[in-house]
Amino acid sequence: MEDHISLLLVVVPLIAAPVVAVLPRGRSAWAVAFIVAAACAVLAGMQLWAVLTEGAISYELGGWAPPWGIEYRIDAVNAFVALIVAAIAAITLPYALLSVEREIPEEKIPLFYSAMLLCLTGLLGITQTGDIFNVFVFLEISSLASYALISLGRDRQAFTAAYQYLIMGTIGATFYLIGVGLIYSQTGSLNMQDLATLLPGVLHLKTVETGFAFIMIGIALKLALFPLHLWLPNAYTYAPSVVTVFLAATATKVAVYVMLRILGTVFPQGFALTTPADELFIVAGIAGIVIASVYAIYQQNVKRLLAYSSVAQVGYMALGIGFASAAGVTAALVHLFNHALMKGALFMAVGAIIYRIGACRMDQIHGLGRAMPWTFGAIVIGGLSLVGVPGTAGFISKWYLVVAALEQEAWISVAVILMGSLLAVVYVGKLIEALYFKPVTDTGTAVSEAPLLLLVPTWGLVFANVYFGLNTDLTVGVAEKAAAILGGMKP
Amino acid sequence: MRPNLILHVVAKFLIPLIILFALYVQFHGDFGPGGGFQAGVIFSAAFILYSLVFGLDTAEKIIPAHWLRVLAALGVVIYAGVGVLSLLLGGNYLDYTLLAGDQIAGQHLGILLVELGVGITVAAAMLILFFAFAGRGRE
Prior knowledge:
Strand content of chain B: under 5%
Number of helices of chain A: 20
Structural class of chain A: mainly alpha
Strand order of the largest sheet of chain A: 1-2
Largest interface: A-B, 15 and 19 residues
Shape of chain B: elongated
Oligomer: heterodimer
Radius of gyration of chain B: 18 Å
Distance between the termini of chain B: 17 Å
């Protein structure tokens, strides 16, 4: 059992998914999905502990030794990301019960949970595997599941959003695959550890450079790096609330992980600096933070506002990657964790509003803060964390990012990070103004507070925002260990 | 559906052959070209031909929609179950060697079972897709 943790993390949700799909209507599908997600969170925690105390884990699938067989290779980096994914899934599922019953047609509920589990399988698989082709396979498993999940949204636009994401996501995955193919043609290997030893010998080849470029663009599409983010706002806006919570907190994070892994482990550290990649990350990051934040201010739909804010947050992570220093990678990983917490909490709170009034347009939520004080409180604290107020998780990530920027004397980046926070004040302020200070629009029906089953997971994440804003042992501690493995790409 | 004698006779003659060929591709996949995916597609082609000739309702009487869903799930469970079985026998996931007495027999049995799972799921998924599109606008 101990030896198989890394494998069970992928196989348990994989086996549960088809089983859930054939369960009868009722709550049994939810119950199985919840138990599986909770088990995954426990396994991921055990795995991180094992990696931190005993060092990297290697698991040979089918008993075939790497580099011929597929190897799962876990170190502090992916154990950390796997824990984020599994923990978010375990927190999202209790929330899902009522929200899904409200938003998804009854006969589709077992299939919905089946797709959720498949998505979880894919995301966890990406974090576990040590094989770059296997990454593509799991990327497709998670993406196909998320296209299906997004299309289950109540508005008809959900279909268009899912289709748009399908096209963009497929282009991204194909680019990644082309890149992997080009690299395979020059090295004959797909194992990440093996590639790390083979690639330095062939780096001068144009084929390898082209492969690198294809991989970077492909993943940049998946992580919605500005200006390749166009699929994200629609997908997040029209997806069912639970799906938005889960994807916003995990999918882009896993893509960031793949990016870091390719840059830090597969390619020799420092290779990115010989290409325009690092400058492009900084430019895309800066542009993303400024432009997406400004877009967020003008949105009339709360979910879309938060979606644009997500694009801006990806920009911060791109900045961290672009600095290519140990401090930068640490900042990117810390923000990866913290952003999962804040967007998870915020989208959950918005989902609670949708549960009550069935919509989340700015002009429909006037004065709701007084009718739903707990939901409103969650939005306020989540929003403060998004801005980066001291005492919240957001502050920690901004702090490390600014430190990394100062270390490089990247004054423009420092200014942009601070400006991004100010822009966040504006859009979070707009949200709070609508919820609390605008007079109540009289709809004739009294709105009451969201049910406890929605509030408890939301506040769980809100408390996590505060806790990880005060105690950074887990986040920064692990992120620093992880950054040491991925290496400052710059000395 | 207007009955067409030639179509009926030819289809009745071809369908068993198609299914036989699917089974050949399925179980010969470890020696020659083929395997679960191809076999599943060929297998479902036989049913699609049947429903094209004899009508959708007759075809759905042979394989009800909810059975297709169960079959699609079953295949995945067979595949993953073989992996779990090798875990329980003390090996790594999908390590077929332990499934039988010696290594060759074990690998043989393992890949056959896994491909059987693939075949069932692909055949069922193909039919689900076909019925989903063919059944549009009927209600």
